[in-house]
Amino acid sequence: MSTSTNVPYRLEFSVEVPGTPEQVWQAIATAKGMSAWFLPTEMEEREGGELHFSMGPEMGSDGRVTRWEPPRRIVYEEDWAALMGKDPGALSPLTSEFLVEAQSGGTCVVRVTSSGFGTGADWESEFWDDMGVNWMPFFDNLRLYLAHFPGQEATQLEVTESFTGDAEALWSTLRDALGLGEEGSTVEVRGATGTVERVGERQALVRLTAPVPGMLSIFAYPYGEGDDTATAGVRAYLFSADAADYVRREEPAWHAWLQGLSVPA
């Protein structure tokens, strides 16, 4: 028997980004584009097309495109119940809509709405509270991608490690160890040079200039029940012909570096 799903949840925000509607559409409605600022994405680029977002080893979210109106509007649904390990039918699909509106001066506003229906359980409201915090920083990536790398294909590097301790303390340790300064400052992160573009709640975004151009997201977040476990990670989007070689070389080094962090108890 399925549970009644009649409690509405909704998250809405907008972001202004550089580019034409066609450039923005390429970034938000194609597998190549979304993989360059979001998660590794597979997508059949049409109405009714299947899609999959990779969230790590053997983790991901499946869905399908329900509206496809280039270059203005895309809507897709994800299987919220499967994503959260709940019974099929217990939750409605998680629906996300992107609307692109051209502005004067060569920019567009992207209006993002995510919605779903649940049962009113405590974990659902926590999911929606966390969703905004976790999702909105990706749109800084989108802005940076369209400003510096529009239309380019990314090679991704992602490394995470779990720690015993508080997420705030972990973030403080991570930020200090990498020497991350204020927004606009130059930084050298383990041999890579860049500019700090954004510092937010337990996360920062660096635009890399050498040796490989790209974007580096650095983050820490609570993991699991309670406040005694946290995860630190880096996710890079790299844009050059030799990016794959760089990732092969640097991924093990990042793992070792993260494992060597000493987080105060």
Written account of the structure:
By secondary structure, the chain is an alpha+beta fold. Helix content is about 25%, strand content about 40%. The protein is built from seven helices and 13 strands. The strands form two sheets. Strands 1-7-6-5-4-3-2 form a seven-stranded antiparallel sheet. Strands 8-13-12-11-10-9 form a six-stranded antiparallel sheet, with helices on both faces. The radius of gyration is 19 Å and the shape is globular. The mean pLDDT is about 95.
Short recap of the structure:
With 265 residues, the chain is of the alpha+beta class. The chain has helices spanning 21-28, 31-35, 80-83, 122-135, 137-148, 167-178, 243-259; strands at residues 7-18, 41-43, 50-56, 59-69, 73-78, 94-102, 107-118, 155-164, 186-189, 192-200, 203-210, 214-222, 229-238.
Distance between the termini: 46 Å
**Which oligomerization state do the chains in this entry correspond to?**
single chain
**Amount of beta strand:** 35-45%
Strand order of the largest sheet: 1-7-6-5-4-3-2
Mind telling me the CATH class of the largest domain?
Alpha Beta
Largest sheet: 7 strands, antiparallel
Helix content: 25-40%
Number of helices: 7
Average the pLDDT over all residues and give the rounded result: 94
CATH homologous superfamily designation of the largest domain: START domain
Order of SSEs, N→C? EHHEEEEHEEHHEHEEEEEH
What's the architecture of the largest domain, going by CATH?
Answer: 2-Layer Sandwich
